[in-house]
Amino acid sequence: MRPLHPQMFDDLCPSTLSPVRIGDKWGGLLVRCLADGPRRYSELRIPLARITPKAMTHSLRTLERLGLVAREIEGRRVTYALTPLGRSLLEPLNAMCAWSDEHWEELVDAYDPDAEALGA
Hints:
It contains 8 helices and 3 strands. By secondary structure, the chain is mostly helical. The N and C termini lie far apart (40 Å).
């Protein structure tokens, strides 16, 4: 399995701009990172460095509770992997990413970061 690329996601990635969320704000990005197979937390941090460790842990736990991600512990080694239910999200996620790519300029133009900061 190839390593995750540090620049896998644009700084203004659709997780912020997308009207569809998987679990929470970062869930879709985590699902995308796990698409090729199980990953350790430290591997996930590479393309998701802008997410605080607390937020990433919260997102992984949310995806676990939803049955989309499984956490496996072997001694001191912890890995995360998509469950069959989580893998079933890959096709719709690919469609959502294609839609976001197609409408990227409109999403960027419409995005209001102040509304998010105010909880709107």
